[in-house]
Specification:
Layout lengths: L7 H5 L6 E2 L13 E2 L2 H9 L14 H11 L9 H5 L6 H4 L3 H19 L38 E3 L6 E3 L3 H13 L7 E3 L4 H11 L28 E4 L16 H9 L6 E3 L2 E6 L4
Parallel strand pairs: 1-2
Antiparallel strand pairs: 3-4, 5-6, 6-8, 7-8
Length: 286
């Protein structure tokens, strides 16, 4: 069954069409197509250990970190396809070199799917580098550090140049951070998700959890915060779409200029990373 190639979630996100014949293989993840050798396709169709549910149990975090050091650059969406193809590390032979590398590639694909599922329905399946726009202002006041629960749209403001909204209290500091990054020749835009309507969080819970009201967040597939607990609902979290897509935190994004800049500077503006989701930054790190 084709459902063994990718979790059904991937089809929802419009990613199943990225499974291409081996001749179409290109390592530049999410901008050009993925492809699998005949042996890899056989494993995906017949071996449950490669499924969305089990793959991470069969590759160690240590191995993921090691492969990120060697091959993370091959999947950096900030680079052009031409740049990636010139890297000897990113050749077909290297990226089909072992079972660990195959599992590593699947891990990256799964994590991109989680990011896409946090976007609005009309954005799902859209290339995360298609969106754009930014606005810069100067600000200097302290950021309110938390603020749990949900807020209504009236407590949010649109991020200029986008269709995304953020809690009005932290908008000036967020824009100041964009300005500071721009001064260092780093463009942090676009973003895939910011404020999320509480109704949307409930919709995600119903789609991802056995019991949307009671299932622990980590037991949902993919993990999904309970309504009223997500920092997206309070408008105090940002998902950056031009980031490496990995859930193993700091080690995974080394070499990604945007992530490196955020790691060094975001705390100055009151934003902190969620280690398990490299793209997710909030005022509390949760």
């Amino acid at each position: 069954s084709m459902k063994n190639i990718l979790n059904p979630v991937l089809s929802v996100a419009g990613i199943s069409n990225k499974v291409q014949a081996a001749d179409d293989f290109n390592p530049y993840y999410d901008v050009t197509q993925w492809g699998y050798s005949p042996d890899e396709l056989y494993k995906l169709r017949n071996d449950p250990s490669y499924s969305y549910y089990q793959n991470l149990e069969n590759i160690s975090q240590e191995k993921i970190d090691e492969l990120s050091e060697k091959y993370g650059k091959c999947f950096d969406v900030s680079k052009t396809n031409y740049e990636v193809e010139k890297m000897s590390e990113c050749s077909k032979d290297r990226l089909r070199g072992s079972d660990d590398i195959f599992r590593y590639r699947l891990t990256l694909l799964d994590e991109e799917t989680l990011s896409l599922l946090e976007q609005k329905p009309e954005d799902i399946g859209k290339d995360p580098v298609d969106d754009g726009g930014r606005a810069i202002i100067n600000a200097g006041t302290a950021i309110p550090p938390s603020g749990g629960g949900s807020v209504g749209i009236e407590q949010t403001s649109e991020i200029p140049g986008t269709n995304k909204r953020i809690n009005t209290e932290i908008l000036p500091q967020f824009l100041q951070m964009l300005d500071a990054a721009k001064a260092d020749k780093i463009d942090l835009m676009p973003i895939s998700s910011a404020w999320r309507d509480p109704a949307k969080q409930i919709e995600l819970r119903k789609a991802h959890c056995a019991d949307w009201q009671n299932t622990p967040s980590g037991d949902c597939n993919p993990p999904t915060a309970k309504p009223g607990t997500s920092k997206h609902e309070s408008g105090r979290a940002i998902d950056f779409s031009n980031m490496c897509f990995s859930r193993n935190g700091s080690s995974s994004c080394k070499g990604n200029a945007r992530w490196e800049w955020l790691k060094a500077n975001a705390a100055t503006y009151g934003f902190y990373p969620l280690k398990s989701e490299a793209w997710h930054w909030s005022t509390t790190g949760s």
